[in-house]
Design brief:
Length: 272
């Protein structure tokens, strides 16, 4: 389709307006983290890196950072294992209810976070607590994995649709076992998709707050929860800005890397 010069200019303007609407507030947060003032205000009164040093020394920030890292890594590991297994089952095999299972796997990413959070909170109270598993880091990891599985699943199944199953069949015909075929044929073809899915899952888990609110116990606080709890406390605005800026950077890097890795890679594989 060929667009007129006016239409192209109009689309570029709308694109720039949309990008500005999304990213200018993030830029304001980053710039405010270097503001000399102790209160939220714009424009900044001056430039200082003092708040970054104070944030690094803050015990609450360090504990929350450790909790976020543990939750992100735990949810990513679960998502990698389950998301990969589900995608292999749905793409490589035909069975009754396959489309329904695919829909159920993708559904959590489409549901509002508060709905997922309430459902998980109810499940923890009625199922986990009678088994001796109360609200804590484990329930946060389980809650985050519900939507992290989706991003791994989408990345892996998209790659599987571009990789012919004939290579796997050839490996089996040449005497390769199931594990040898996966190691030398399937895994190399999926490697970049798995890394991209893992990075995206970690980024989503790291900055999640709604589901975390409903699944975390009293002693569990991630970085997003720390920001929310300290947002309106006196003299905490500079440190909150620093933590928010750090959260933006940590979230952007894995998502950017996952986009770079999501490009199709060559079909070169090593036979067992």
């Amino acid at each position: 389709m060929t667009l007129s010069r006016g239409a192209r200019i109009g689309l570029r303007i709308f694109m720039l307006v949309g990008l500005a609407f999304i990213y200018i507030p993030l830029l304001v947060v980053v710039v405010s983290s270097f503001n000399t003032s102790k209160i939220f205000g714009w424009p900044p009164d001056g430039f200082t890196t003092k708040w970054w040093g104070l944030a690094a020394q803050n015990e609450g920030v360090r504990v929350a950072l450790g909790t976020s890292l543990k939750a992100g890594v735990g949810a990513t590991v679960i998502a990698l294992v389950l998301g990969t297994m589900i995608s292999l089952a749905l793409q490589r095999y035909t069975f009754f209810g396959r489309d329904s299972i695919s829909f159920l796997v993708i559904l959590p990413i489409a549901l509002p976070g508060i709905v997922t959070g309430i459902a998980l909170n109810t499940a923890i109270r009625t199922v986990f607590e009678p088994l001796g598993i109360g609200f804590g880091l484990l329930t946060v990891i389980i809650g985050h994995s519900t939507f992290c599985i989706v991003v791994v699943f989408n990345n892996v199944i998209a790659r599987l649709r571009r990789v012919s199953g004939n290579l796997e069949e050839a490996s089996m015909d040449l005497g390769g076992s199931t594990f040898q075929t996966f190691r030398f044929v399937t895994f190399p073809a999926l490697r970049s998709a798995l890394i991209a899915g893992a990075l995206l899952a970690f980024g989503l888990s790291f900055d999640e707050i709604v589901v975390t609110t409903f699944t975390a116990g009293p002693g569990v606080q991630t970085l997003p929860l720390w920001i929310f709890d300290n947002l309106f406390r006196p003299n905490q605005a500079p440190v909150v800005n620093v933590v928010a800026a750090f959260l933006v950077v940590v979230s952007v890097i894995p998502i950017w890397a996952s986009q770079r890795l999501a490009a199709p890679e060559g079909a070169s594989v090593r036979m067992p």
